Amino acid sequence: MPEMTQELPEKTVKRIEEPAISLKKIAQLEADSEEIKKDKDVEMRQLAASMVQIEANLKITELEADLVDERERNRELERKIAETKRKNDDLETQLNRTMNLLDLYRDGWSYLAKTASWYKGFGQWMTFDEAEAYCASRKGHLVSIHSQEENDFVWKLAKNFPANRSFWIGLKRNLDKGNAFEWTDGSSVDFTNWMVGEPDSYTHAVLWNDKGKWGVDPPNEEFQFICKRDAEF
After folding, report:
1. What residue stretches are annotated with the C-type lectin domain (predicted)?
2. Is residue 132 within 8 Å of residue 142, measured between CB atoms?
C-alpha cells in the first residue's frame, strides 16, 4: 500500500495549536488570579490592622476623656476637701477663742464692749514695773483709759477692793520726751481724769478707788493694779 505523504491542511494545524495557546492563557490567568488574591490578602490584613489601630485609638481617646473627667472630679473633690478644712479651721479657731474668753471670764476678767477689751484688778502689791511685767505675763498691760465711760468701768473694778486704795494704771512720764505722759501699751493720751492739784512732780499714775480720779506717785511705791488686754489673742 503506497505511503501517504500528503501534508495536513493549514487550517488543521491551527486547530491543533489553539488548545496550547488557551492553556497558556489559563495559566497566566491563574497566576494573575493568585497574585490578585495575594494582593487582596495583603490589603485585607492591612485593613484589619488599620481597624485594630482605629479601635485602639478610639479606646485611647475614650480613656483620655475618662482621665480628664476623673481629674476634674479629683479637683472638685480637692476643692471640697480644702473648703471643709478651711471651715473646720475657722470653727476650731472660733472654738479656741470662745474657750479662751470663757477662761478669762472664769478667771475674773470683765469685758467692755466699747473698747473690745478685758480688764481685771489684782490685789497683789507691786511696784509700777513689777505690775506692768505681771500684766504682760497675762498678755496685757497696765490699763490705759481713753474715755469717761472706760474710766468709770475701771473705777468700778477698783471699788471691789477695800476703800481708799491706789491702783497703778499704765500712765507714766517719759523723761526723754520732756516728761510727757504716755501709756505703756503705746496708745495715745487722749483722755485724763486728774485729781485737783495733780499731776505733781511724781512720774507714774495711779487711780484712787474712792473717787475714780488720778494722781501720781514714785514708781518704786507698791500698789495694787489693774490690767487690760485685747479681746483678740
Report:
1. 119-228
2. yes
